[in-house]
Design a protein that fits this description.
single chain, 318 residues, mainly alpha, Trna Endonuclease, Chain: A, domain 1, 2 domains, five-stranded mixed β-sheet, 5 strands, elongated
Length: 318
């Protein structure tokens, strides 16, 4: 299951980055190009075990090539311009004496490059280049990642998240909540639960349960519990007990662990428990980022807190 998570999230982020580069290119804004060269340098080094460095380390604005691996004689052009002419120009402009016997690769970002693989190119005799296998794009990188071992997949996933995670924000909507609720209700098998009928003030409950360090977080996610209630209602319209099942399991996690952790540690442990269930489920939405799942879980746990399924009712502690 982790294989799929690593690959799917990496693919989402790489494609989001490619779209960003493409959009900025249409506006003639190319600030991301140098960033792309350095990112894909690290990505390829991790994926292939190479030791590429930026060609500008040798000469400023090296023509035809962006990344170089001297020991194995490899060079890579990273380009958001994905045309036959661009590949040919790169081959023509690369210093033949300096890079004699080097293997040339063309990495296209921003557009699909599969149509360029079957075209004919005039390859200088000093270079090694086979367009059928040496023209790469995002899809090709993901395919190569898919063939890698689990440790490499994990490293690529961590690298991509570190540098590109800001491109995709958590999807804070009812659809995401519904997907996570569905997974939790399918994975959580526990007894029914009794609704809490005695009302209380949430801020008072936070205080008496010594959760003031999480007050702002709880308040933030509480703003989405009305949306979650609608999601629960839609899941329960045919007679299921989705909300009560999830509340019951979260309550059991709380009861099993209270006294072993500080209040804030226990709150986070409950959230992590639910998060891990979704993450490890075979039914996990493959197109949902980890941040989106985390946001949904935080809303669900906050709702359980407000419903007094986790932590103590103020009247029990005063």
């Amino acid at each position: 299951m982790l294989d799929a998570i690593y690959i799917n999230e990496t693919a989402l982020l790489l494609n989001a980055f490619a779209e960003t580069v493409k959009t900025l290119g249409r506006l003639n804004l190319h600030d991301n190009n140098v960033y792309a060269e350095n990112f894909f340098r690290d990505f390829l080094n991790t994926l292939k075990g190479w030791n590429l460095i930026n060609a500008n380390a040798f000469a400023f604005n090296e023509p035809g090539v962006d990344l170089v691996y001297e020991d194995e004689g490899r060079m890579v052009q990273v380009s958001s311009t994905v045309t036959k002419k661009k590949i040919q120009d790169s081959l023509n402009n690369t210093d033949r004496k300096k890079y004699a016997n080097y293997h040339f690769y063309f990495l296209a970002i921003g557009n699909d490059a599969s149509g360029l693989a079957g075209k004919a190119y005039s390859v200088p005799q000093e270079f090694v280049f086979d367009a059928t296998v040496d023209v790469w794009d995002i899809s090709r990188l993901v395919a190569l990642m898919n063939d890698a071992d689990i440790d490499t997949k994990k490293s690529l996933h961590e690298l991509t998240r570190k540098h590109l995670c800001t491109l995709l924000r958590p999807e804070k909507n009812a659809h995401s909540l519904s997907e996570v609720v569905k997974v939790l209700s399918e994975e959580m098998r526990h007894g029914d639960d009794t609704p809490t009928k005695v009302s209380f003030i949430v801020s008072e409950k936070i205080k008496v349960n010594e959760l003031e360090g999480l007050k702002d977080s709880i308040s933030e996610f509480a703003g989405y519990t009305t949306m979650l209630n609608s999601v629960y209602d839609s899941h329960e319209q045919f007679g299921s007990f989705t909300r009560r099942t999830i509340h019951s399991v979260l309550r059991k996690v709380y009861e099993d662990n209270k006294g072993s952790y500080t209040s804030e540690e226990l709150y986070r442990l409950i959230s992590k428990y639910a998060y891990d269930i979704v993450l490890e489920s075979a039914n996990r939405p493959t197109d949902m980022m980890m941040e989106s799942i985390e946001w949904c879980v935080d809303v669900i746990v906050t709702d359980a807190f407000e419903a007094c399924k986790i932590f103590e009712h103020p009247q029990n502690l005063i």
